[in-house]
Design goal:
globular, 10 helices, 15% strand, seven-stranded parallel β-sheet, 9 strands, 265 residues, alpha/beta
Length: 265
Amino acid sequence: DQLFVSAGADPARVTSFSCDHVVPGQNMLPLVISSGPSGARLDFSYQFRDKKETLDELGRALVNIVNMVPGGMVVFFPSYDYEKLVSKHLETSGVLARIENKKKIFREPKTSSELDKVLGDFATAVRLSTGALLMAVVGGKMSEGINFSDNLGRCVVMVGMPYPNLFSPELKEKMSFLNKTVGSVDGKQAGQVHYENLCMKAVNQSVGRAIRHKGDYAAILLLDHRYSRPNIISQLPGWISKHLKVMERFGPTIPAIRNFFKGKE
């Protein structure tokens, strides 16, 4: 709409049409996980994500989830820097070792030359053991164009919300331009709407890596209480949002995941 409106066209000329996903609803388990095992709220916004309490709670959540998920599991982080921070903290605290008791851990490489080897080793570990966990980055090499179908991706975990860098000169100019030419959209400045759209587009691309055909199935876990906001849910694909459940407490999450996979055996 923004392109048409800013060019002077009538928004009434735009017609939207969308189709449902070929995957039946019972083959997916999309959950918003708002709090961790100790009851602490999961908030990966800028002011909280680096805190020890947040990282500890994330570690506890991952340990619990890993025990319930068969095959491959992909955990997406908002940036390479944050993935590195989390990985270092979980290693220091002993959580990575606990996870590796269940699944071999791989990390997304920064260089393209290493990508094929990491993916190959990940696939081999999934096939020959109780599974593997891949720590990946939204907007990186693993979130676009690579499929984690069938046993390679039985669970996708999204840690936090991958908002782009607000201090990027290019983004600031784009937002300023939209604010001037479009004004407001549903009560929000057009630049802010664009900023939120970039985040949710990246989320949708990442979570769609796991379910690739009508017989496929996977759990989609959104770890951050902000995903429970109606304006955020409305930006998820309809085939996900209509089955989405918001888990305010972590306790019921585990049996929900266990029962989902038990029904697929």
